[in-house]
Design a protein that fits this description.
12 helices; alpha+beta; four-stranded antiparallel beta sheet; 2 domains; six-stranded mixed beta sheet
Length: about 350
Amino acid sequence: MRPRRRVLAAGLALVLAAAGAGSPGGAHVGGSTGYAAIAVEGASIRYSLTLWPATLPPASAEEVRRARAGDGGSRDRLLDAIRTKVTLTAQGRRCEPGRGSQAPPAPAADSTTLTVEFTCAAPVRELHVRDDLFDVFGADHHTIARVDAPGATAQLALAPDAREARVSLAPGGGGTGLGGFVWLGVMHILGGWDHLLFLLALLLHGGGLLAMAKIVTAFTLAHSVTLSLAVLGIVQLPERLVEAVIALSIAAVAAENLFLRPTVTRRWIVSFCFGLVHGFGFSSALRALGLPADGVLPALVGFNVGVEVGQGLVVALALPALAVLRTTHWERRMVRASSVAILLVGLVLLIERALL
């Protein structure tokens, strides 16, 4: 029994370590996200940043909570961070940051919105945005920005490895920053360890290449459908319900691995059904941006492509490892050990999201 216990402990430690590496504030968000509204009017720019403390690193989260509660020092430090870490340049000349303010907190939201006014040397036609807020809020922070100017609108996704974006604000010259949304999708899925645990639990019992391809394809199609429906505002579900069902899906598939005899050829059905719910979870990164009608589709396509690219990278790494495992006598023990660990993680998440 000792070797079995060692394998069980090893599997549990590995899966829990992987789970612990995820974002502490939200399982599938891939870190924290700030939403910036950049309003351009002539030579003036109003930059408003909305932050949620629940997903920020502890020190930054506490600063945001204090600012929301009315602490002037915390508010001023956050405004100074925007002034020093956000650089706006028009026609090659830097716009100077000026006064700042904090919007009254909304009773129903935990967020805080801070605004800094920038003054440029001339009316803005070409806007260059550089975001270094990641140096303050952590390497897993992302900024989704919407730029509004007379006759032009653009959407941008900025990250530690993609800190700069350029936008033409001539009438009809706004862009979607498609590459930024692709990158945001990649980072979203790579940080979404609850989605990846669900997919891993589905793949653990293996089967032939065709069976596993069906599982991955069904998951992809399902979450693409509901991601689109949610972002387009056609179907909305309560976030708490979505998060709880995602946790339930992880626990249910892991339990099936342990206590039932999964029919591998039919697991694509399970993948598809739960994938529909996971799509609503993916949509949270885009819905809060309030994209205009002409910007939703390109941003949605770019984000979804990024999710699929990130998911493909993970599957490409996992499948060879699982194939090698199946040639050893450790397969059955490792599948059980990993399933036990995934089940425990799923149950903890379910209790946390449904009851706490």
